[in-house]
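[Discussion] Sanity-checking designs against the backbone

I'm trying to build intuition for which residues belong where. Below is a structure token string of 405 positions. I'd appreciate it if someone posts a full sequence so I can compare it with mine line by line.
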């Protein structure tokens, strides 16, 4: 019996499975690294390229948008050709585009480089989440996704520290040279160690980019409901990471090191929540974990509104820390449920989930940031959009859409 079959049947983790998880952690780190390492440098990028802070923030939202949109191609390619070649191609594209960003002299060049970099990062993400679904089945894949999210959350804790030091010592471009080096090291590791996980029964029929293929996933209410929850929860986090540098450093006057402290503190709570969530899901089920996560996000919105009149860093960060905990509990259980019905189309389903989660949230934030809303008002509204999802989950309709695990 193959490793994939053993895992799907609920066998205890093997050395091979541990290796898969470690490699998937490496693959999913590309996306948060491309965002968090240069957050402390956003103000310097704005000044150096002589552009508005909104355009500097667009280097994040454009990356996130292509990170999701590119998965429409990466997912079917992963189903057709396998997870390994897509992962390798993604790492190469990521490294080349980081080099383009390093040499960018104008904001337009930097934005184009970031769009391309998002495509590379999306390929590594699709390969990672599809391989998790391949290797661990319906129930355990949700738990493994939570563990992956816990690993991802180490990046917001550590990357801004590294980014602050690189920016102070060598300028903002050094953040992108670090990404080039990271891609080179990861390429060697993935090339040597990543073995194909695509199941033999994977559906590879039809054209590569097929409406019917995508529609077969989109018509599933279980997917639509949980993918939408992922979109709205991710929008909260994106709004935070794009708004925080401007609010905390420009308006509240925090130094780069003080900003990094608050950002890292939030990441610590996020890490703890991501590591605790899988154990909770295993004991009490994914529905209970998702209900708790959504409830915390809604509470965070109420708290953000209540503290919005206090112009202090703690009054902004306390609701953010609460929302990060809610996000961690929401994303693992919702993402696992969104992928649950698609053992034969895991790559395509993972791609569409990524489209909802990244492009959908990126587009939503990009539009809302152009409205005349304060950062706290924007975040309050986004957090409270999870309330209908919570109510649906508790209804009979939600009971049909959420497979009990």
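Best answer:
Here's mine. Compare freely.
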């Amino acid at each position: 019996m193959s490793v994939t079959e053993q895992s799907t049947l609920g066998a205890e983790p093997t050395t091979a499975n541990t290796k898969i998880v470690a490699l998937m952690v490496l693959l999913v780190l590309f996306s948060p690294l491309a965002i968090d390492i240069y957050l402390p440098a956003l103000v310097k990028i704005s000044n150096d390229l002589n552009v508005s802070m909104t355009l500097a923030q667009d280097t994040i939202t454009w990356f996130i948008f292509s990170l999701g949109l590119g998965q429409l191609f990466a997912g079917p390619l992963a189903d057709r050709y396998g997870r390994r070649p897509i992962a390798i191609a993604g790492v190469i594209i990521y490294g080349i585009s980081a080099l383009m960003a390093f040499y960018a002299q104008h904001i337009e060049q930097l934005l184009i480089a970031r769009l391309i970099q998002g495509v590379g990062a999306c390929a590594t993400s699709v390969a990672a989440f599809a391989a998790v679904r391949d290797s661990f089945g319906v129930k355990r894949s949700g738990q493994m996704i939570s563990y992956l999210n816990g690993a991802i959350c180490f990046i917001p804790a550590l990357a801004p520290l590294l980014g602050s030091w690189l920016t102070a010592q060598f300028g903002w471009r050094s953040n992108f040279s670090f990404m080039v080096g990271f891609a080179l090291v990861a390429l060697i590791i993935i090339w040597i160690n990543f073995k194909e996980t695509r199941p033999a029964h994977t559906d590879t029929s039809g054209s590569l980019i097929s409406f019917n293929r995508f529609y077969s996933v989109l018509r599933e209410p279980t997917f639509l409901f949980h993918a939408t929850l992922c979109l709205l929860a991710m929008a909260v986090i994106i709004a935070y990471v794009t708004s925080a540098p401007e609010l905390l450093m420009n308006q509240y006057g925090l130094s780069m090191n003080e900003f990094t402290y608050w950002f890292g503190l939030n990441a610590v709570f996020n890490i703890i929540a991501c590591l605790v969530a899988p154990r909770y899901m295993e004991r009490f089920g994914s529905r209970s974990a998702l209900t708790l996560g959504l409830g915390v996000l809604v509470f965070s919105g109420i708290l953000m509104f209540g503290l919005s009149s206090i112009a202090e860093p703690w009054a902004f960060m306390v609701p953010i820390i609460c929302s990060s905990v809610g996000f961690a509990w929401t994303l693992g259980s919702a993402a696992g449920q969104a992928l649950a019905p698609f053992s034969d189309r895991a790559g395509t389903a993972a791609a569409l989930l990524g489209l909802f989660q990244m492009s959908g949230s990126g587009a939503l934030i990009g539009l809302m940031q152009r409205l005349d809303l304060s950062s706290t008002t924007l975040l309050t509204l986004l957090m409270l959009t999870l309330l209908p999802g919570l109510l649906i989950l508790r209804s009979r309709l939600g009971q049909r859409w959420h497979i009990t695990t």
